[in-house]
């Protein structure tokens, strides 16, 4: 029985749910499987198949997408389970932080780094960091102060200072999946790279802020507390990034040196998956940011490791990583939808409909204000710094960036459970915070997500010709030296054309030192017996 409980816990099943099914005639003759686990997995896999089919049928629909479809199916499935069990429980699976952070989130973040268009991403890297880090901190402060001031007037008075700060971090975590499903990397590459990059950095920043709040000693707060927070964040930022880069380079070096494709393409593909996942686990083991680590590991693997494998493995890895990410995203929205009808939490909250609506409305209003408080000011400050009109962020783009950050998702719910669902704090107001968070996530995803596609089409006029700022500046350093009078120094070029200059020197360093050691485009070893070897031979001819 202990083995059954441990296996069920991995899937978020509680011992209480298990015992309610022990009498079913479908009991399996096995020491490690039980009926509840099989039923739960069958339901979720069936729902995943339904999401894929319905998503395909609604591909051209203006008001629906796969995220909303999965969420609504999860809600419907939860309602059916609630009716079948006569109001006892609405879920087959309980929301498990381990399931989310260890199994579902890593493939999504890794694929984001693996598929990202690196040139555009790093061209806007400073802007992404401003919105993703500085903007998230502003949102965190506004939401925390707003909650501290308004909740007491509503009647929610038992929350501590740590709870108010935690709510600020929880509600600062955005979910821009709905917006990214509508935006196109080809039609609006600048806007896509900003929204995409900010979403990844925002999740990492929110989790770091949340963990920092948990470590603070609120009985001894002094002037150094803020400096400690900043120091901790910078440490996590640089060490997590360095770890991801190191693991990515190690995978590239191993595959380039040993070249597994000579004997088995399965081994090189398996090594890429395992080392990518290993980077995330190492970061979590070292109390770093696993999101940043696996994201930059994906970027490095796509730049070096992917070019060192055989042609068949390149096709396999590209589609396999995208498929795993897609399934994990769909599973998360199903998970959140079914968890939205957690009848036990609603009963524990003991709050009236008016109180629940007031708390949820307050949280969402603070999300709106906190988002606007940094998107528009930072964008306009950047516009003042930019010299070229084509490089400025226009108001329509600012509005889409603001809208893209209004949706909240599974990270928000996971952090909320972490803060308020522990056995040591079984209180009505803790349950109220969880149910209010669920309401904000459902409302923002379904309502805001459903109007995202028509809104973007109306605001951005999707079929227009892309603006000049959407393209990458392809002017070479040699062209700049000719255009500038006299012998232009590297420092002058760095000041006048920073993006092009940094990119030029990075390419020189990459071609001279990095690619000969770690492989990459143009440095794949020639093996005549493999498809890659034949391709290299034909391309060099």
Number of strands: 0
Query: Based on CA inertia axes, which overall geometry fits?
Result: globular
Kindly estimate the percentage of residues that lie in beta strands according to DSSP. under 5%
Report the uncertain regions: 1-11, 13-30, 466-474, 528-541
- Helix count from the secondary structure assignment: 24
Catalytic activity: K(+)(in) + H(+)(out) = K(+)(out) + H(+)(in); Na(+)(in) + H(+)(out) = Na(+)(out) + H(+)(in)
Domain Cation/H+ exchanger transmembrane: 55-457
GO molecular function: potassium:proton antiporter activity; sodium:proton antiporter activity
Organism: Populus tomentosa (Chinese white poplar)
What does this structure look like?
It is a single chain. The protein is mostly helical. 73% of the residues lie in helices and 0% in strands. It has 24 helices and no strands. It has helices at 2-10, 15-19, 35-57, 66-84, 97-115, 118-123, 125-154, 161-170, 177-182, 189-215, 224-258, 265-285, 290-308, 311-339, 343-349, 353-385, 395-404, 410-420, 428-450, 452-460, 477-483, 490-496, 498-518, 531-540. The chain is globular and about 65 Å long. Mean pLDDT is 80; it is low at 1-11, 13-30, 466-474 and 528-541. The chain crosses the membrane at residues 38-58, 70-87, 99-116, 128-151, 233-255, 267-283, 319-338, 358-379, 400-420, 432-456. It is found in: Membrane. Residues 55-457 form the Cation/H+ exchanger transmembrane domain. Its main location: membrane. Pfam families: Na_H_Exchanger (PF00999).
């Amino acid at each position: 029985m202990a083995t059954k409980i441990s296996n069920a816990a991995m899937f978020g099943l509680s011992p209480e749910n298990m015992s309610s099914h022990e009498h079913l005639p479908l009991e399996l003759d096995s020491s490690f499987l039980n009926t509840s686990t099989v039923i739960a997995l069958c339901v979720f896999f069936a729902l995943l198949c339904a999401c894929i089919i319905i998503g395909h049928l609604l591909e051209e629909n203006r008001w629906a997408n796969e995220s909303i479809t999965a969420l609504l199916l999860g809600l419907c499935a939860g309602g059916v389970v609630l009716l079948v069990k006569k109001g006892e429980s609405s879920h087959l699976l309980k929301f498990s932080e381990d399931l989310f952070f260890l199994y579902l989130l890593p493939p999504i973040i890794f694929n984001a780094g693996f598929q990202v268009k690196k040139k555009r991403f790093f061209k806007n890297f400073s802007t992404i960091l401003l919105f993703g880090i500085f903007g998230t901190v502003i949102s965190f402060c506004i939401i925390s102060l707003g909650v501290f001031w308004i909740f007491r007037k509503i009647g929610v008075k038992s929350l501590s200072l740590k709870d108010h700060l935690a709510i600020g971090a929880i509600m600062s975590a955005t979910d821009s999946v709905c917006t990214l499903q509508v935006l196109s990397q080809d039609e609006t590459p600048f806007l896509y790279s900003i929204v995409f990059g900010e979403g990844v950095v925002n999740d990492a920043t929110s989790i770091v802020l949340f963990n920092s709040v948990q470590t603070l000693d609120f009985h001894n707060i002094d002037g150094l507390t803020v400096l400690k927070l900043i120091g901790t964040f910078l440490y996590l930022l640089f060490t997590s990034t360095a770890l991801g880069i190191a693991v990515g380079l190690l995978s590239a070096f191993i595959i380039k040196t040993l070249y597994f494709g000579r004997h088995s393409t399965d081994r090189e593909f398996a090594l890429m998956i395992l080392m990518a996942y290993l980077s995330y686990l190492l970061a979590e083991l070292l109390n770093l940011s696993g999101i940043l680590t696996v994201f930059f590991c994906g970027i490095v693997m796509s730049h070096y490791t992917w070019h060192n494998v055989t042609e068949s493995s390149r096709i396999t890895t590209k589609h396999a990583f995208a498929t795993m990410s897609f399934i994990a995203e769909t599973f998360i929205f199903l998970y959140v939808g079914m968890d939205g009808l957690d009848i036990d939490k609603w009963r524990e909250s003991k709050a009236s409909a008016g109180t629940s609506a007031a708390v949820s409305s307050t949280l969402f209003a603070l999300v709106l204000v906190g988002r606007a408080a940094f998107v528009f000011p930072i964008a306009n400050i950047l516009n003042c710094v930019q010299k070229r009109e084509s490089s400025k962020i226009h108001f329509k783009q600012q509005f889409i960036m603001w809208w893209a950050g209004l949706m909240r998702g599974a990270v928000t719910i996971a952090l909320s459970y972490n803060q308020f669902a522990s056995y040591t704090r079984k209180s009505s107001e803790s349950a109220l915070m969880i149910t209010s968070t669920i309401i904000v996530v459902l409302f923002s995803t379904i309502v805001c997500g459903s109007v995202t596609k028509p809104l973007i089409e109306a605001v951005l006029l999707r079929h227009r010709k892309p603006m000049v700022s959407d393209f990458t500046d392809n002017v070479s350093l040699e062209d700049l030296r000719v255009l500038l009078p006299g012998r232009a120094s590297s420092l002058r070029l760095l000041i006048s054309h920073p993006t092009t200059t940094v990119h030029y020197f990075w390419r020189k360093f990459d071609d001279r030192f990095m690619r000969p050691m770690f492989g990459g485009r143009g440095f794949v070893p020639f093996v005549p017996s493999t498809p890659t070897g034949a391709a290299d031979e034909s391309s060099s001819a």
